[in-house]
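Batch job 17 of 40 flagged for manual review because the log was empty.
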Amino acid sequence: MKTLFLVFVNFSFVFMGLSQQNNIEYDFPIRPNTKDWQAIKSIDEMYAVCQIPENIL
């Protein structure tokens, strides 16, 4: 049982290391404190422009 646990822990560390290899920051098209941000009229629009596209994630 202890051996199985150690194998699981080792695989966990391997997968954790592989999951975050890309350190590229996403450049949001509209940022707070800009004219474009101030032109947004609703919370829904703010939420929409703050979403990172699925193909980037």
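Reviewer: the log was empty due to a logging misconfiguration, but the result itself is present. DSSP finds three helices and no strands in the chain. Unflagging and moving on to job 18.
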